[in-house]
Amino acid sequence: MNSLTHDRNRNETMTAVAFSKYMNIFLLSTHFMFAFLYWYYKTPILFGYNLISIIVFLYEFIPLKQGRLVQYRTISLGEIAAFMTMNTIFLGPDYGFQLYCMGFVSTAFLIAYTNAETAKLKPFTKLKVAFYIGYVFAVRIWFFNHSPYYTLGDRNVAQLFYLVNIGISFIIQVWCLVVFMKAVDSLEGRLERAAMLDELTGLYNRRRIHDSLEQLNTMDIKNRDVYVGIMDIDHFKNINDTYGHAMGDTVLQALATRLMEHVRKNDELRVGRWGGEEFLVVYLSHEGESEDEIREIFSKIQRTEFSNIKDKNGNSVPVTITIGVARKQTDEPIEHVVTEADQLLYFGKEHGRKQLVFLNTNE
After folding, report:
1. 143-159 confidence digits (pLDDT tens)
2. How far from 197 is each of 190, 204, 206, 247, CA to CA, in Å?
3. Is residue 171 pLDDT above 70, yes or no?
4. pTM to 2 decimals?
5. What pLDDT shows up at residue 2?
6. Given its phi and psi angles, is residue 288 left (phi above 0), alpha (psi -120 to 50 degrees) or beta?
7. Which of 54-63, 116-125, 183-192, 203-212 is most confident?
8. Alpha-carbon gap, residue 38 to 52, rounded angstroms
9. HSE of 150 in the Cβ direction (CA atoms, 13 Å)?
10. Which fold is adopted by the domain 206-362?
């Protein structure tokens, strides 16, 4: 995974972690509330279990801090299921703890369909949903002939608990819905990026660069020039043959990183991977900018240093690049400019490599 893609994925994970922290605080607060109520109504078993639940949700901040969302969700759902079962057995259906199953219907789809690590659970999703729904009916049937172990206060207290648990179940479902929507948005974003970005380097791919070039044919550019540069890593085949294809990928990623550094310094630069070891650079000049200034921009790119790329013995891998740069003439199709830049590139490669050929002038 290249550094650009890694940064995007890390940001998405951080957002999901932040959201889950709020959910964990809510669940922790809920257990503090129930612990107080069970202490007040003198139900030591349920009070003791709530203390265990509080410890569990305090522990849950550790995997959240480490970004382990799957572990957090698995432990949380396991605790909620045990809490639901414990309270339903001791208090019966009138207090509404079995309603958490409705929230579990959403979480079954959430876990199976929003994370690659748990995608293997998809075949069991319908079975789990059937179990959760069946659980609610089973509780009702069981307590037709059985009495609960505890009764908290009068009928009004049971109704209050029931309403509270409806609210908790609703919040769990809303949480699942929000997480699911975020996962869908993230997936759409990844698909969109995959359609326009090169997987290895994170730069625009040939299709996206081609679309950008097409737009230049119709743009109204006054007193500004368009320059197209095509660059090629010298002797790239030898690098692959000598050091292996993994090293070749490292060199491509290193060049992409250097190019993005140039882009950050100059917002008129557009770069992308044109194919193989070739990269394309488009520059839209500022009004009044001289050719010498533009030549220096491309010259800095051509002089890019790769001294930090080492082989397994710690020796520097020799990496140089050749660039051919052409300028778009008035009403000239951008495709012709790309062809001319490509011809200038190969002229440079046939005449010594490791150079910039700027408008038919070697450097």
Report:
1. 777 788 888 888 899 89
2. 10, 4, 9, 21
3. yes
4. 0.57
5. 47
6. left
7. 54-63
8. 13
9. 21
10. Alpha-Beta Plaits (3.30.70)
Main-chain dihedrals φ then ψ at residue 282, nearest 5 degrees: -115, 130
- Residue 217 and residue 327: Cα distance in Å, rounded? 13
> In angstroms, what CA-CA distances link 52 with 68, 76, 168?
22, 13, 19
Sequence spans of domains, the chain: 3-196, 206-362
Catalytic residue among 12, 79, 199, 277: 277
Tokens of 133: 């729904």
Non-local CB neighbours of 304 within 8 Å, separated by 6+ positions = 255, 258, 321
Residue-wise pLDDT for 42-68, tens only, equals: 899 999 999 999 999 999 999 888 888
User: Which single residue is written with the structure tokens 């996206």?
Assistant: 208
Residue 363 annotated in active site = no
Buried b (16+ CB within 10 A) or exposed e, 275-309: eebebbbbbbbeeebeeeebbebbbebbebebeeb
Q: Which residue has the tokens 């940064």?
A: 7
Mean pLDDT of the chain: 82
Four-point Cα dihedral 240, 246, 252, 257, nearest 10: -150
Lowest mean pLDDT among 24-33, 169-178, 254-263: 169-178
